[in-house]
UniProtKB/TrEMBL annotation:
Transmembrane segments: none annotated. InterPro entries: Beta-lactam-related, Beta-lactam/transpept-like, Diverse_Enzym_Activities. It comes from Longibacter salinarum. This is Beta-lactamase-related domain-containing protein. Residues 42-379 form the Beta-lactamase-related domain. Gene3D superfamilies: DD-peptidase/beta-lactamase superfamily (3.40.710.10).
């Protein structure tokens, strides 16, 4: 059960902080130490770690066909001597949403689902009990945060949940049935409201039609084809030598969070935000989207599918100055280029990524701390790396 102190994954306010090729994926990930000199990146990371007093920070910089930098500095756990490695795994929080959306896009391409599929079409018995307002809500709207579902980003919402069965797949199906029988938070399709519940329901729909759990589909259909070693939950809970998250509570100083303590997200919140992986592995996922945005066919799906995911379904606010949201990506203009970005946090790690197709560039920054200073560090580092590597702008392919 999620404890009261959770400030879950990525609230709408954190989303708003985001603003401020080759036809096939390479078969191997180069050793970060074998990459060309990245002294500038090392300097930026070290400066940020010292300025913002964070245990460790790591970054990945990629073109569509190469990794330019994969670096890390600091320690895996504050108070312990083990240095962090560029191949260590970091928790990605809500940056998982783009991965869940990508997995579902694969199911849409192969005809297992369509973007217009509704829950009543896939869940037996739900057609008669679903709230009338949700009858026409589509898979696409769940992923674009326009479904009408409540956010599930605060402890009050968690406390209202009834107990569910332990099996992850069955639990997500039960959760979907539960929330779709309740009153919507707003008229579905009328506006944007960031919702972790939407991604949990979308994953449950994918599981229902495929007969396979989200975790298994992620491993077999996304991680394996991209040669990614991704996992679920806190990295140090899976491997104690991996980075620990750090957080503050009630004004306390930053301290390590026990990865085996009671603060765990659990199966419901895997699809919206509970994946961990190394920066080189995350870079490969970003390259998949970068290639597609540049008009290049990928090994997983057509470039047109990628571009559709990065097409805004509408603004994130009534204000025209606020960026739009696609399927797992914030779509906005940043540093003079059209960009797709996202940020993620569950209070113990921070992750931030941006793709700029016109510059053939993608950057991600992560840290094993979840406080405000860590968030600021990722914002500043992402900006510095995009400026460092994005000097030349080119017209990306339109085919």
């Amino acid at each position: 059960m999620v404890p009261p102190f959770v400030r879950f994954i990525l609230t709408a306010s954190l989303v708003l902080l985001i603003v401020g090729g080759c036809a096939q994926e390479p078969s191997t990930v180069p050793d970060p130490e074998e990459l060309p000199s990245t002294s500038v990146v090392d300097s930026l990371l070290n400066d940020a770690r010292e300025t913002y007093d964070i245990p460790a920070v790591a970054a990945i910089v990629v073109r569509s066909d190469s990794i330019l930098a994969a670096r890390a500095t600091g320690v895996r756990r504050r108070g312990a001597p083990d240095p962090v490695s560029a191949r260590d795994a970091f928790h990605l929080g809500s940056n998982t949403k783009a991965m869940t959306a990508t997995l579902i896009a694969l199911l849409v391409e192969d005809g297992t689902l369509s973007w217009d599929t509704t829950p009543a079409e896939v869940f037996p018995g739900l057609a008669d009990s679903i709230h009338p307002a949700f009858r026409g809500v589509t898979l696409e709207q769940f992923l674009a945060h326009r479904s009408g579902l409540q956010p599930f980003t605060n402890t009050r919402e968690y406390g209202e949940l009834p107990p569910f069965v332990d099996d992850p797949k069955e639990r997500r199906a039960a959760f979907a049935t539960y929330v779709l029988q309740r009153d919507p938070s707003y008229e579905p399709g009328s506006r944007f409201l960031y919702s972790n519940a939407g991604y949990a329901v979308a994953a449950a729909m994918a599981e229902q039609v495929s007969g396979t759990s989200w975790e298994q589909m992620m491993r077999e259909r996304l991680f394996k084809p991209l040669n990614i070693s991704g996992g679920f939950g806190w990295p140090a809970a899976v491997d104690s030598t991996q980075p620990w998250g750090h957080r503050t509570r009630g004004g306390d100083s930053l301290r390590a969070h026990d990865p085996n303590g009671r603060f765990r997200l659990g199966p419901l919140w895997g699809p919206p935000g509970d994946v961990h992986m190394s920066m080189p592995d995350y870079g490969r996922f970003l390259q998949l989207h970068l290639r597609g945005l540049r008009g290049n066919k990928t090994t997983l799906f057509a470039a047109s599918t990628v571009r559709d995911m990065h097409t805004s379904r509408g603004a994130m606010s009534d204000s025209t100055d606020i960026p739009g949201y696609g399927l797992g990506w914030v779509v906005h203009d940043y540093l003079g280029a059209r960009s797709s970005s996202h940020a993620g946090s569950v209070g113990t790690f921070k992750a931030r990524a941006t793709i700029q197709a016109s510059r053939d560039l993608a950057v991600a920054v992560v840290t094993n701390a979840g406080h405000e200073d860590a968030d600021e560090a990722t914002i500043e580092l992402r900006k510095a790396l995009l400026e460092q590597y994005g000097e030349k702008t080119e017209e990306h392919a339109t085919k």
